[in-house]
Amino acid sequence: MNLLIVESPSKAKTIEKYLGKGWHVIASVGHVRDLVPENGSVDTKNNFEMRWQIMPGKEKKIKLITDEVKKADAVYLASDPDREGEAIAWHILDILKSKKLIGKTPIYRVAFHEITKNAVMNAIKEPREIDSNLVDAYLVRRALDYLIGFEISPLLWRRNLGRSAGRVQSVAVKLVVDREREIEDFNPVEYWSVSAGCKLDKSNFNAGLSYFDGQKIEKMTLKNKSDVDTVLSKLKTPINATVSNIDKKKLSYRPYAPFTTSTLQQEAARKLYFSSKKTMSVAQKLYENGFITYMRTDATNLSNEAVSEIRNFISKNYGNTFLPKSPNIYVTKSKNAQEAHEAIRPTHFDGAEHELSGDEKKLYDLIWKRTIACQMTNAEFDSVAADIVTNDKIATFHAVGRARTFDGFMKVYIEDKDDNDDESDAKLPVMNVGDNVTISEIDTDQHFTQPPARYTEASLVKKLEELGIGRPSTYAAIMSTIVERKYVEQDKQRRFHPTPGGWVIAAYLAKYFTDLVDVNFTAKTEDTLDDVSNGKTDKLAALNDFWGDTEKMISGARDIKTTDIIDEINKFMNKHLFVDGNDKCPKCGGKLGIKLSKFGAFIGCENYPKCDYTKRLSDAPEANAKQEPKDLGDGISYRIGRFGPYVTDGTKNAPAKKYTSETITLEIARELLEGGNKKAEPVEIGVNPKTNKMIYYYPTGRYGAYISSNKVNVSVSDQPDLETAADLINNKKPTKRFSKK
Question: C or N terminus of the chain, fewer CB within 10 Å?
Answer without folding.
Answer: C
